[in-house]
Sequence to fold (582 residues):
Amino acid sequence: MLRILIKPELCAGCKNCQVACLAEHSPSGSVWLADLSGGHGRPRNSVELNSRDLPVPLTCRHCQEPECVTACITGALSKNPATGLVEHDQGRCAGCWMCVMSCPFGMISPEALEKKTAVKCDFCQGRETPRCVEACPTGAICLAEVSPETGNNTTPGEAPKEEGLH
Amino acid sequence: MKYLILGASAAGLSAVRAIRQLDAGGEITVLSRDRQIYSRCLLPEVLAGRKDPGATRFVPEDFLERHGARWFGGVEATRLLTGEKAVLADTGDKFTYHRLLIATGASSFLPPVENIRKGRQVYGLRNLEDVEAISAAAGKGRGAVIMGGGLVGVDAAAALNERGVSVTIIEAAGHILPLQLDRRAAERYQHIFRKRGMEIITGEMVTRILLDGDDNVTGVELKGGRTIPCALVVAAAGVTPNISLLKDTAVETGRGIRVDEYQETSVADIFAAGDVCESLEAFTKKITTTPIWPLAVQQGRVAGWNMAGARRKPLNNFAFRNSMEFYGLPAVSYGLTEAPGPGYETFTRESGESYKKFILKNGRLRGAILQGDITGAGVYGALIRENIPAGATGEKLFGLTYADFFNQLEDGSFIF
Fold:
């Protein structure tokens, strides 16, 4: 399965990935027309400084046993069995914030404008290369084929592939 | 293998799915008192009139069919016969099993208040039928009294307030949401609720429900002597596990059905999950009931895997977490809401609609409240759950993100 791997040591902190994410999820899709002052919401990824003030790019892992999916009370969140992606159906979301409470990495948030539903990385919905990866000039985030059998975020031992309640 | 599952909510259906992952051919039967599949957490949305009952279904229409499970809705298991491995239902039918999951949930607890069982307009907020009954009674006007200012009580109050019913919350503690929030965060909600016309009475209890000659509710009397007229009462004083079918069996119970980390009960081949069970909770390290949705799903999954022959433990069993939103103000909290004694440090910050509070002990977080701005809350929850040193104190605590703990496995997974 294709996943976005992170190499913080290569990150220059330019935030091109965030601009790319914002643009991709704005009406025009264009970096030129995207409202960077908040009118088109917030990017779904982030670059945060760690305790040594070094930049770390962060984005949803599409976990093997996603805690956001486990916590979802409406069925809005699910893990796609074919792609392994954790998908969010905004139309079903009740804005209860159980997912925000449960993601140990803080990778799902209230949508910044309306604040009525949650929003998370959608892997640019079938785009060949996610826009953030494409925009990264240093290779700090890159696309890689990983085996879903090689591990699981916080579970000791292996669990069967989880697909939420779908 | 013949699986029988009692309950078709979070835990029961999660188990169906987990069993099917490991056993393609086993026979799965689900019995539930519920006639519909719905998410109980969404009942306040229905009561408020924001959602239709049909929109509370949390699995796809074809879920049971797709997982090859037979479902009998409106069928309540009344007796467990462990000797012959069978369950008797209120329909008179007998269902046999090789492996049984009890996921019958919990019911509204009715506190010892005079006339509480006699009054005709006293309801819990637990089932779709409760919502229908409350809606019918609320239509008559004259107001509602909510006994208990916990999450269910406040949800009910906000929903009824939105429908134009005049609402009074009676809470025994000094502020509403005493298990979820500290005084400051709760007061911020109380301020909003009062502005919306709700009455909130704290440090008080209902001692008697006042009835007319036909047992219709006319009001409540409080411990301090005050009476409040109302047409209906919502009892929101907690829940009690549905374990009556275990009478005269050897299945060990405390408040709920006692289970081990595999969700197995004291009787072989009988499992329990969700609100009906009690288990070792991760934050308190005590055996307690764990009545939150994420744990019902997770426990159902673990039960399902183990029923199907795997030997798997849960990710964690952390029940001390809450999320909520009232009138556009969200909040998330974990662990302690107040420092319980010396040896703790408390850090708070309040600006505009945002209020944050962190409680540290020996460099480790023991409690967190985020109200207003809840983005990134889960990181604090994970630090509390995993008992990881926060690596920060004072102002720095407010800016913690996963960048501070970044650790990536070969397949891209994050771990702490």
Observations:
- Chain B has a mean pLDDT of 97.
- Chain B touches chain A through 63 residues (CB under 8 Å).
